[in-house]
TrEMBL record:
One Pfam assignment: FAD_binding_2
Organism this protein belongs to: Rhodococcus rhodochrous KG-21
Keywords, sorted A to Z: FAD, Flavoprotein, Oxidoreductase
Protein name stated in the entry: Oxidoreductase
FAD-dependent oxidoreductase 2 FAD-binding domain ranges (all copies): 8-452
Superkingdom of this protein's organism: Bacteria
PANTHER family, A to Z: FAD-DEPENDENT OXIDOREDUCTASE 2 FAD BINDING DOMAIN-CONTAINING PROTEIN, FUMARATE REDUCTASE
């Protein structure tokens, strides 16, 4: 006799949860419940930019972009120096194009034009019209159509775990049982205690802030302790550069800036993707100085066009990127802040920051020389972003990677999203997908769209595997 409340319970209603619930129904389940702690569906997914990475989707093919079978996997492994769980990553990457098609078939509206997600060799970023909210709206509508139930405002406190098997969830003192449970609770960016413990390189008390949803409290870490699940991915995630004056989040640097390390040396193309800037700062004591001059803040009329086009990133689903902190008004507002340095000469600027003047002035002199030649032969920044740093006053903004967009410490899974125990065995009846998994994000966040791609792709893998397990259990 079947005496379970549901066939499958999914904890969390972000992309990972919605994709797994819908897939479980497609795979033959009839009684699927999504339990959501917050009063609103969608988690961080609903707040996100809506770029989804994928290789060999119908849209990519239609755009005439050729992508080889395992190039995405190989590039992902290379950028992460193989320090991820290659099994699940390979299966997820291989199906990433098919997952974009699946999202599209389920009503997610994509633009035809793809973008470069990060440091990839060919465009793989699929942009959703309407951003993350449009993904949530489409999948929730589809889930409701096929009979998935939702329980809003119910935070799961613990898993029901008996005789080595997960058979349900406990929320507010109530037990709900199921053949299988999928954990899709997102990350822990909204939990300062967990940030300090598990993402210490991102944690600066009084400065670090999270840009996602308040539901990201890291409950998967509690569940893991309860069932002895393996955890992996300490100190992984995505951090964006932050001047520390407010909690306004800024994804990219304007192309007319120069980014210096503590020695006053330049070290990259300043228009690099945010995941790359995060890693570069990690290798430089997590401190950088964004240097520019007054012409950038108040360009003369004849040069206005040169400064207006300041971003490499042009996304069809996003308004033209514009500086947020690096504007005359914001600099004026925070001019007395200890992280904002303003000086009439480069020597004085160096002194204000505490960098030897020879180093800073030498770096800027070389940069200005490259500007004159029109070619950044040192770091390869595109010529159209090269503007001299020569009009006083000069500015240096101290930035640290303390704006958190993603956390990567979580449950270790196999290539079917089954959770692995500390004893090396699979935990029966337990699956995980999305930001609550570990070992998917490596030392470098590979680019815009990789989180949503893994939430959707691994969410589908979890839905399939949990449905198969449920059917076998009831056979
Ligand atoms: C501003 C911003 C922009 C971003 N842009 C992009 C982008 O363009 N492309 C990209 O790939 N990534 C992007 N990301 C990252 C990406 O949005 C997330 O990694 C992804 O949405 C996570 O999906 P998820 O389903 O794992 O978690 P979430 O979407 O966070 O969903 C988890 C859900 O679980 C719920 N929950 C948690 N604990 C419990 C519990 N105990 N009981 C019940 N429910 C619970 C939460 O309330 C939440 O609703 C962005 C992130 C942010 C913050």
């Amino acid at each position: 006799m079947i005496d379970k409340d549901f066939e499958i319970i999914v904890i969390g209603s972000g992309l990972a949860g919605l994709a797994s619930a819908l897939t479980a129904v497609e795979r033959g389940c009839r009684e699927v419940l999504v339990v959501e702690a917050e009063g609103v569906l969608g988690g961080s997914t609903r707040l996100c930019g809506g770029v989804v990475m994928g290789s060999r989707s119908r849209l990519q093919t239609a755009a005439g972009i050729e992508d080889a079978e395992d190039d995405m996997f190989k590039e992902y492994m290379a950028i992460n120096v193989w320090d991820v769980s290659a099994g699940p990553v390979e299966r997820w990457a291989a199906r990433s194009g098919e997952t974009i098609d699946w999202l599209q078939d389920n009503g997610v509206p994509f633009y035809e034009r793809l973008i470069y997600s990060g440091d990839d060799r060919r465009p793989r970023g699929h942009c959703v019209e309407g951003g993350g909210q449009a993904i949530v709206d489409a999948l929730v509508a589809r889930c409701r159509e096929v009979g998935v139930e939702f329980a809003l405002g119910n935070r799961v406190d613990e898993l029901i775990y008996t005789d080595g098997r997960v058979t349900g969830v406990r929320s507010g003192g109530e037990d709900l049982t199921a053949e299988a449970v999928i954990v899709a609770t997102g990350g822990f960016g909204a939990n300062p205690e967990y940030l300090a413990q598990h993402y210490p390189i991102a944690w600066v008390p009084g400065e670090t802030f999270y840009i996602g949803s308040q539901g990201a409290r890291g409950d998967h870490l509690k569940f893991s302790t309860q069932v002895d699940a393996q955890l992996t991915g300490e100190n992984r995630g995505l951090r964006m550069l932050n001047p520390g004056v407010d909690t306004m989040h800024e994804a990219f640097l304007p192309g007319w800036t120069v980014l210096l390390d503590k020695r006053g040396h330049r070290f990259c193309d300043e228009t690099a993707p945010y995941g790359i800037l995060d890693s570069l700062l990690k290798a430089r004591d997590n401190v950088g100085y964004v240097v520019f001059d007054d012409a950038a803040l108040r360009p003369p009329a004849d040069l206005a066009d040169r400064y207006a086009d300041a971003y490499k990133q042009v996304w069809p689903n996003h308004a033209k990127f514009k500086p947020k902190h690096y504007t005359a008004d914001v600099i004026e507002q925070y001019k007395d802040h200890e992280r904002i340095h303003i000086a009439e000469s480069l020597d004085a600027l160096a002194e204000s920051i505490g960098i030897p003047a020879d180093d800073l002035c030498g770096t800027i002199a070389r940069y200005n020389h490259l500007v004159e030649t029109g070619e950044d032969t040192d770091f390869g920044k595109a010529g159209r972003f090269l503007n001299p740093i020569s009009t006083a006053p000069f500015y240096a903004v101290e930035v640290r990677p303390t704006a958190i967009a993603h956390t990567g410490y979580g449950m270790r899974i196999d290539d079917h999203a089954r959770v692995i125990g500390v004893d090396g065995n699979l935990i029966e009846g337990l699956y995980a997908a999305g930001e609550c998994t570990g070992g998917i994000v490596g030392p470098t966040y590979s680019g815009s769209g990789s989180s949503l791609a893994s939430a959707a792709g691994i969410g589908r893998m979890a839905g399939e595997a949990a449905a198969d397990y449920m059917k076998a259990a009831r056979a």
